[in-house]
Amino acid sequence: MTRLAPPATGDTAAPTEPRTSPPTPSTGWTSADALPLYGIPAWGAGYFGINNLGHLAVQPEKDPARRIDLFELVEGLRERDIGTPVMIRCTDVLRHRLREIREAFDAAIADHNYDNTYACVYPIKVNQQRHLCEDLRDAAAELGFGFEAGSKPELLAVMALTEGQPDMPIVCNGFKDSEFIETVILAGKLGRHVIPVVERFSDLELLVKHAEHYGVRPRIGVRTKPSAKGVGRWESSAGMRSKFGLTATELLGAVEFLKAHGMADCLNMIHFHIGSQVGDIRRIKAAVNELAHIYCELAKLGAGLDTIDVGGGLGIDYDGSLSNSPSSVNYTVDEYAADIVYRVKSACDANGIAHPRILSESGRAMVSHCSMLVFDVLGASVFPTDADAESVKALLIAEDKRPQPVLELIDAYEAIDTPRVNLVEIYHDAAQAIDEAMSLFNLGYLSLPIRSAAERLFWTIGKRVLDLARAKGELPDDLADLPRRLSDIYYANLSIFQTLPDHWAIDQLFPICPIHRLDEEPTRRGILADITCDSDGQIDKFIDRRETSKPTLELHTLNHGEPYYLGVFLLGAYQEVLGDLHNLYGDTHVVHVSFDDSEGAGDWNIDEVIEGDTVKEVLSYVQYEPENLVKAMRREVERAVKSRTLTVREAKNLLKFYSEGMEGYTYLE
Prior knowledge:
TIM Barrel; 4 domains; single chain
């Protein structure tokens, strides 16, 4: 374990930079203005804030007095040769999040006089990274939580991960073959609390076969297909056409099949799933109500039920809008827990059935908040917005040209600040004129210097129109494309495909903001382009509480020689395990941090550093043998030396760079 504390002398910052906050700009901008701009209080859920240096800080227990300065942490990592991009996991946030879920259900159970217990199980498909799962296991052991495995490899991982935890519940979902089910039966004989879930009737037949062979009476769960449907991107997970589960007719057949084998008492759990990231609490209420009544009916038929598993669906408020949009939820964890407990209790009381133990598979809600990615900006493409009409007029005179589109751009430029100006009309005129100017250039009637002048006029007009429209407090529909058209392009040292696959694939929004300079007003607006060579490798949709999304992000002007860091947040669920090797960019560095105030407020520990993939490692993933590649390059270099196209010294340097490159980080260093 490495201790990294922000020392009083500030030696975790760049040596040329003072540790004091920059002077407040004349605009009167303060850090408080950055909070609503980036939506930090809304999506941050209390885990993030801004300190008096203008740096984003992690508040692991939602306590502003106990903070981890992200900028100082990243700078400290850089001094230790752990560069960006880097994934930071905060163990204390993970533990606090699990406690919140535990406390929400404990409160609901007490409020409703519910006569049983609750446990949350973590589906490791959400993020199977070993260090995260170990942190979660340690917290789960204290809270009575467990794990869910959806495949044979996941089951084998979970069984070893939970060594010495015989009472920790393990739910087994997904397709199963004979070997999978035999492993489950033997794990039960080992004394493990394993619950295989029947997804298809053939699963039940295999379970009974192996149970009878080994003389075991297993705990069996069965998944039902609810008529209630989910909502959002994953609503097809539920309903009668869902991939998994038994229909009502098949449920009745399952009970009769178990009775015929004298094992009806082994049917202990009923389970369903209505989709991930369910944003509307009404869908959850309806589905749980249906599941509770199915539970009661099966109990009346003689099934030995004692557990009800409401599956996944507990969502995350990614955009901070607290709505039923695909990137948000219109409920809190407390409301979620209260509704589930109340509806299960009501159905059971109405039918005279004992209250069951409640399980939920709330993986996204458990781990999303604890992980964040910090990356550096490599540079920016900024459109020029500093043209003036007089210089363009002088250019036209010098070239003895009077192209009508350029004259119209000059007229539009000079009309912007006139009284009662129509901004929409000005923009329409400018857009038409620049299109016509480009046509003239393509036909050979416009010189390159005049084309450049026309472009600068257009960008300047657009920027001025946008500023004036925003000053009036609204952006007309006809100007809706203007922010994106005028936006800068900031080049981000990351791969969208590796780190944010859900953003690329399904337009999932994640909170993004600078982690420093938050006490400076961001004067630029841009999109983010990654370092892959794919045109899809960019982020051009950002969270906005007022709209579904916004096309640009507020950013600061880059200062030469100084790093500029941005963070992407709420990444703990799915992103690390879904990422691919586009352009052979591999896993980023991962750092586990925890808060430690044993030697004074503001200290933290670096508990674990998992270095990102090297070039050699990612090449081996796609069946290249790095040693053979080096040998091939050596042969090529020797041929070049013999033909005198390379000197011996040049050949030596090339081989040195090639070999060292194999051991280097796949991202830009």
